[in-house]
Amino acid sequence: METYSILEVMKARMVDLEQMLHHVMKLEAETGKQAWILYVMDLTGLQYNKKLYDLVTGSMKSLADFMADHYVEMIKVGLVKTAEYIEIPPFKSVKNFETVTVSCGQAHVVTKELKCGARLKWWVRGNRNFGFGVFWSETKNVEDFFVAKQVSPCFPWMPGPTLVPMEEEVIIKHDAFYHIWVSNERSWWRSLEVQLHVEVSD
């Protein structure tokens, strides 16, 4: 995806997709039953980093949308690592979350003053695209979070709605103010609704 444009990649994928569709239709004609392709992905050696996030939400999302539009229900997806199926556990849900409405062009920030050794845990999901980050600063008020120190990778804009919540827990390393930043600043018209849970423990 870094060498070829998304259009060139789609043109190359068309050959494989058409061949798979041909085999599916042939099998359906022979059996009289619906058929599909089991698309197996070997994730051995896959590195989980921001580069992967950009790939999945950018070029790969465009490919997935294209396949969903033109090859409806032809492909089912499975994940394989070292020739063994990986069972993906359901995400952990929380009951005591806060529902927050963030107006267009605005951001919602939760600030906690924490001591070294404390644990900060968060759980968040939204009903549409939004930005999210966790930062720390020596002062309570922060004018620009993009120049603040990051606790975890900041996502200025993520595609939504969030099917699987984002959750993480960190051990505080500095006596400081910690900010959970939820942004709807790129939206011009629509409000954002997020379910947010922030927990602090010793």
From TrEMBL:
UniProt-listed InterPro entries: CRAL-TRIO_dom_sf, CRAL-TRIO_domain, Ctg-1-like_C
Taxonomic superkingdom: Eukaryota
Limits of the Ctg-1-like C-terminal domain: 93-199
UniProt name for this protein: CRAL-TRIO domain-containing protein
Taxonomic source organism: Caenorhabditis japonica
